[in-house]
Amino acid sequence: MRRALIATAVAALLATATAAAELPRTGTLAPGRSLGGIRLGESPEAVRAALGTFYGICRACSRRTWYFTYRPFARQGLAVELADGRVSGIYTLWRPAGWQAPHQLGFGTSVLAVHRLTGASHTVKCRGYESLVRDSAHARTAYYLFDGRLWGFGLFPRGASPCR
Domain with 142 in it: what CATH number? Predict the structure, then answer.
């Protein structure tokens, strides 16, 4: 009887932890450190613990990529790339509402304000968009621009291409 109670309590705790893990409604970019609470180098288990198990797998991506969205087939969300069993890239999908960077830097901000507020000065031209990047000791923070406005965020290993 006692074992059954303990097993039930443990199962309830695990179910609660799994249910609580989901894509944040208001994600934050911590330049050079994390995006949406996910860090470079984390394990797939740590990602699932933080974001849950509701994700799609990109079949056309060159890297193993999980898409975490708010609803099935929704465009807004977070992509997590994995290589060698660890997170190797993180970037927003489209423009998830409520996500921001320090200094209240949100989607739609002008390119000049992004330059001024982030110190990102290197521009990488990608197909159909640009990325302002800033490298720190171990990471590259990307500020994606479309039509002269901030469109998304990304975090990659230092010097990696932000183009996806």
Answer: 3.40.33.10
